[in-house]
């Protein structure tokens, strides 16, 4: 005699329902030539990708500002305006986190070792440079540098919280 199995139905509601229906993270991989001239096209592609995957506009915009600073630094300081290989790996984890890894083959440069920008000093007393990195560090929830052989690698992430918290909800 076979035991009868009762049909079990599980109803999931609330936060667990949202967790089960979440899409896997969306990824975008870009290979750039390391010049400032290509950045507008890159950012247009990034914004389209972010919107396509449901990233909140304030998150995509503020993240774009961070990447603009990082990629401009690579193009102008790392490659001296001559270009060179750059890869950008973007990941959007729904509902509100963007992450990126920027890799370049410029000279070793660890932005985490920069002295913090003195934003209270007068313009005459400020040192040239470092303000952009300061800006990125303030916006990012995570800012990590490592040198992997001949490659600089910067990892940044930002989670947007409506109305405040991370980056003041920018």
Structure description:
With 170 residues, the protein is an alpha+beta fold. It has a single domain (37-169), classed as Histidine kinase-like ATPase, C-terminal domain (Heat Shock Protein 90, 2-Layer Sandwich). The protein is 31% helix and 23% strand. The protein has helices spanning 15-21, 39-52, 57-78, 131-139; strands at residues 26-32, 86-93, 97-104, 142-148, 151-159. The chain has a 5-stranded antiparallel sheet, with helices on one face. Strand 2 (86-93) and strand 3 (97-104) form a beta hairpin. The longest helix has 22 residues, at 57-78. The radius of gyration is 21 Å and the shape is globular. 21% of the residues are buried. The model is unreliable at 1-21 and 165-170 (pLDDT under 50).
Question: Secondary-structure map with pairings?
Answer:
Elements: H1 15-21, E1 26-32, H2 39-52, H3 57-78, E2 86-93, E3 97-104, H4 131-139, E4 142-148, E5 151-159
Antiparallel strand pairs: 1-2, 2-3, 3-5, 4-5
> Major sheet: size, sense and barrel closure?
5 strands, antiparallel
CATH superfamily placement:
Histidine kinase-like ATPase, C-terminal domain
Strand segment count: 5
Low-confidence stretches: 1-21, 165-170
Q: Which architecture does the CATH hierarchy give at level 2?
A: 2-Layer Sandwich
């Amino acid at each position: 005699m076979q035991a009868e199995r009762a049909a079990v139905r599980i109803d999931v509601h609330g936060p667990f329902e949202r967790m089960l229906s979440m899409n896997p993270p969306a990824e975008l991989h870009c290979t750039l030539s390391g010049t400032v001239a290509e950045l507008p096209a890159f950012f247009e592609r990034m914004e389209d990708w972010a919107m396509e995957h449901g990233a909140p506009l304030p998150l995509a915009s503020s993240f774009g500002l961070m990447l603009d600073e990082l990629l401009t630094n690579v193009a102008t300081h790392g490659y001296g305006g001559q270009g060179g290989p750059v890869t950008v790996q973007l990941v959007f984890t729904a509902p509100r986190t963007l992450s990126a890894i920027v890799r370049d083959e410029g000279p070793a440069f660890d932005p985490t070792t920069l002295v913090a920008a003195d934003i209270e000093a007068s313009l005459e007393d400020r040192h040239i440079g470092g303000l952009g990195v300061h800006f990125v560090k303030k916006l990012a929830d995570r800012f990590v540098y490592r040198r992997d052989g001949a490659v600089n690698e910067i990892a940044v992430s930002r989670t947007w919280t409506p109305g405040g918290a991370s980056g003041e909800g920018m």
